Amino acid sequence: MDIRLRETLATAVKSEPSANLSVNVVLEAFRIPRPIRIQDVVAGLEPINLQSSFHDASCEGSCSIVISHDGRVSYSGHVHNGGVLDARYMVITSIPTLTVPVLIAHQSSAGGTVGLDKRRDDWDLQGFSSEAASDWWSFRAATEHARTDFGASTGAFEVVSSLFGAVLAGAAAGEVIFHL
């Protein structure tokens, strides 16, 4: 991804792109720990890209989460049901930040051989994370411990009781980016 360093930094420190930006102003705006090299600042501004593959029961799929330093979140993926019956599923990615957990979740269904729905379900969602926008460097470090969980069932009760409960518990204590 191509980024324009001066424009990106000026946006973050709420300054004009043509303004003179001191290194200290930039480090303070991004809460970057010192000492640091300029190469680390440039590399650290690249978006985070989390990729996951998963399967459960007769369903399998993958998802991609791209998070930018300004808090923008893009969440896309697909699930394919290779079974006979329709299946409900849920995908939850959790990021254990220092302040609150961040949950990125998607719930839907995919049809089976005898079902009425399509066998493949795709999604492409856009959202915002205040945790990523407010403390990018800590958030970036926390994504190294991100975890994606997936559950699928032909009975709605199993999916709702096991995974939806986890989302509700996380929502009470943290940030849920995509609500169910």
Describe the structure.
With 180 residues, the chain is α+β, with helices and mostly antiparallel strands. The protein folds into two domains: 5-44, no CATH class; 48-176, Sandwich (Immunoglobulin-like). Helix content is 29%, strand content 37%. It has helices at residues 5-12, 23-29, 38-44, 130-134, 136-142, 156-173; strands at 48-56, 59-67, 72-81, 87-96, 101-110, 120-128, 147-153, 175-176. Strands 1-2-3-6 form a four-stranded antiparallel β-sheet. Strands 7-4-5-8 form a four-stranded mixed β-sheet, with helices on one face. A hairpin with a 4-residue loop joins strand 2 (59-67) and strand 3 (72-81). The longest helix is centred in the last third of the chain and has 18 residues, at 156-173. It starts with a helix and ends with a strand. The mean pLDDT is 79.
Q: How do the strands and helices of this protein lay out in sequence?
A:
Elements: H1 5-12, H2 23-29, H3 38-44, E1 48-56, E2 59-67, E3 72-81, E4 87-96, E5 101-110, E6 120-128, H4 130-134, H5 136-142, E7 147-153, H6 156-173, E8 175-176
Parallel strand pairs: 5-8
Antiparallel strand pairs: 1-2, 2-3, 3-6, 4-5, 4-7
